[in-house]
Amino acid sequence: MLRRLRRIRELFTAPTVRLSMPIWREDGEWPYLVYFLGEGHLAVYLASQWDELDWTVAILGALDGLNSIHLKGVSLGVDLEYGLLVGNGRARLLLVDPFPAAFQPGRDIESLARWVSGYGPWHPESVPALVEEWSESPPPNTKDALSLARRCMAERLGDYALDLRKKGEELHHQLQGGRLLSAIEKLQLPPPLLKVQLASGKRVYTEEDVLYLECPREGKRLVFSTSEGLVVENGRLLRTECLRSITELSNESDRSALKVLRRWLQSSIQLRRLNALLRYQLRQLYSIG
What we know:
By secondary structure, the chain is of the alpha+beta class. The protein folds into 2 domains: about 1-165, Transferase(Phosphotransferase) domain 1 (Transferase(Phosphotransferase), domain 1, Orthogonal Bundle), CATH 1.10.510; about 190-285, no CATH class. The chain is built from 7 helices and 11 strands. A hairpin with a 6-residue loop joins β2 and β3. α6 runs antiparallel to α7. The mean pLDDT is about 80.
């Protein structure tokens, strides 16, 4: 018996195992045993809230603890979800019986597999999916089980790293595209200051960086403003009016002002076309609004 207690005490010192010795208490006619869990909570009460990462931590902790006690010839003795403490980002086995039943390592692995099978569904390449398969074909011992689980976790982390790299590259291209759009928008200059009577009788003028085309019958049309940008349809109409008036007007000052306005309209229409094309391409590639 002393050798047995000494071996159990050695297990208690392992970082993956916690031994909780029961204390007998009497409360009237109903005596009971009290177990102190220390830091952490029983996994059975938390498992429904876990994601894949939480499950992976719990499974690796459980296998590490099972491997420690199996090497000493000790089984857990209870269903694994009732013998696993989780907290502070780690998982440890909880031994509550200093004199456990017969050594049955296969039963502990099957208990872990049954527990994991009750949740999910799992990603087919995840650690929980691997453990779920052990319900039908468990590994021969916990040492092999722990090795398989660690290898699966490494491969899964490699997949995560690859996905993060791809998403990082996409985000980089999105940011580059956004910067290019911003640069194109900054290339848009305000319209030149002018007030000219066109050859067709229409009048073009600017007021506080807003360009208008005033028609005798149709009234005032907005051509450009800093808030709305270039109204392409009115810009093309004004460009045609400028070409005609440059050849027909006799006032050299008005003709020079219209030449400057025509060049400004041409560049603004090209910038608007380039901006729209770039936005369309980015929207197709990265769903940018």
